[in-house]
Amino acid sequence: MADPPSPPPPEPEPEPEAEAAAASPPRDVEPPPPPTELPRRRLLRLRCAVQHYEWGRRGGASLVARLAGDADPDPARPYAELWMGTHPSAPSTLLEDGGLLGDWLGRNPDALGPAVAARWGGDLPFLFKVLSVAKALSIQAHPDKKLAEVLHALRPATYKDGNHKPEMAIAVTESRALCGFAGIEELKDVLRTVPEFEGLVGPEDAGKLMGMKEYDGGNEIKSTLQSAFAKLMTASKDAISEATAKVVGRLNAESKIRTLTEKEQLVLSLEKQYQEDVGVLAALFFNYVKLSPGEALYIGANEPHAYLSGECIECMATSDNVVRAGLTPKYRDVQTLCSMLTYKQNFPEILRGVPVQPYVRRYTPPFDEFEVDCCLVPPGELVVVSPVPGPSIFLVMTGEGEIEVDSISDREKAKEGDVFFTPAYTEVKLSACGPEFMQLYRAGVNSRFFS
What is the pLDDT, as a whole number, of residue 38? Predict the structure, then answer.
């Protein structure tokens, strides 16, 4: 996969008013005033953990490896995710003394701001990540808060916490994903062109799906879709193996005489990665989403998805709960996944960010815990990020420059891979050095929460 693209021109084109209104906080509502006693201003450099999941890009080809500052990454080792936050599975530490960021917040709760501390109990409500995806992640969903608490109580070794995990991914390179169930007409086309599907979901559900219209009652479509999907996901290994072999054999033969559709090409690609896995055929149930650099999608609770390829910024509520059912060697909780899904058939909304000031675009999902800003600092310009009532984490993605807080401290050098934590009510000044742009991403609490 190509390296991250060159930065776009410095002055972003404004989005249409309708999109700006939908994706940015109301402009006529002022954030709450800062408390009388402000937290001591600190710019904390963080050391962040790398996760070496098998699906990650390997060695120096991984954006995660480069951002982590590994001077000699192992070319055979996957560098899949960079975690920035306080989650105990891979917590960030302070560069100056090695202490945990979470412990520092425990000693300095004012750094969260009063509203955040009151709502989320003295911890960061968001987890910030970079993903470098070489092969498909599992078909998965994240539970809502109520189900997360139940799963954590029942199987704490698998479900590590009791929190929900809505998330948003912003493409850094061309990225691909499966997200949500495809519409009824697309599913009918699958049943027409892939006869093996009827054998796996059964003639009754196949017949019902073929007879449905887009405008039919939602509950009837949902119940039939749930039944068909559950039958596919619980089919015997032999049945899946036989059906997959027939589909792949036919597609390989037809590829010699016609151009395969993108979904058909995806099936062949997934089969090479996960032989005889039910997820290869299950992928045909879902929307196939392609993101260009700078485009984003968000995923709510109980929605099926799988990242397929590409490198992206990801932000989510602080959780590591994943219910998996395909395209993975890990534990599969098929019954839970099939019962928890919403079975909505909507193509995901694609966000492109809304300008909130010169050189800064904001991605605002419909979740209180987080938002993400992309800051593109041109050479010779000073970008001032206004104080916000909650904490922030900054990641330098490309370039180098300086970062200064509140005009009361020395400027700090900032280069690719540097990660900084800033407390609530901190003004941050960014400047680029040399002839290149400096690109940063900021994760913080959703501005709408403070409105």
Answer: 45
Cβ density class 48-73: b for 16+ within 10 Å, e for less: bbbbeeebbbbeebbbbbbbbebeeb
* C-alpha–C-alpha distance, residues 266 and 256, integer Å: 16
Q: Residue 220: what pLDDT?
A: 82
Active site positions, annotated: 324
3-class DSSP string for 83-118: EECCCCCCCCEECCCCCEHHHHHHHCHHHHCHHHHH
Give the lowest-confidence range in 179-183, 218-222, 263-267, 435-439: 218-222
Question: Beta strand pairing status for 126-133 and 305-317?
Answer: antiparallel
Give tens-digit pLDDT for 38-88: 445 579 999 999 999 999 999 999 999 999 998 889 999 999 999 999 999
Please give the average per-residue pLDDT across 416-428, as a whole number.
96
267-292 core/surface letters (b: 16 or more CB in 10 A; e: else): bebbbeebeebbbbbbbbbbbbbebe
Under the banding of pLDDT at 50, 70 and 90, the label for residue 212 is confident
Q: What string of DSSP letters covers 415-436?
A: ETT-EEEE-TT--EEEEE-TTS
Mean pLDDT, range 321-346, rounded to an integer: 95
**What is the C-alpha radius of gyration for the chain, rounded to an integer number of angstroms?**
23
**Please, are residues 291 and 122 in contact by the beta-carbon 8 Å criterion?**
no
CA distances, 161 to each of 88, 144, 149, 319, 386 (Å): 10, 12, 7, 6, 33
Q: Which helix (H) or strand (E) is 129 found in, with range?
A: strand 126-133
295-307 burial by CB neighbour count: b if 16+ within 10 A, else e?
bbbbbbbbbbbbb
Q: Would the pLDDT of 23 be above 50?
A: no
Q: What pLDDT score does 407 carry? A: 65
Q: How far apart are CA 39 and CA 110, in angstroms?
A: 5
Predicted TM-score of the model (pTM): 0.90
Only one residue has tokens 């796996």, namely 200
Q: State the pairing for strand pair 371-377/360-363.
A: antiparallel
**Which two structure tokens, joined as six digits, stand for 53?**
């999941």
CA distance 291 to 170: 8
* 304 pLDDT more than 60: yes
Longest distance between any two alpha carbons in the chain, whole Å:
73
Question: Residues 6 or more apart from 282 whose CB is under 8 A from it?
Answer: 139, 229, 232, 233, 325, 326
Query: Which neighbouring-strand residues pair with 290?
Result: 176
Distance CA 375, CA 372 (A): 10
* Tokens matching residue 390: 């909650």
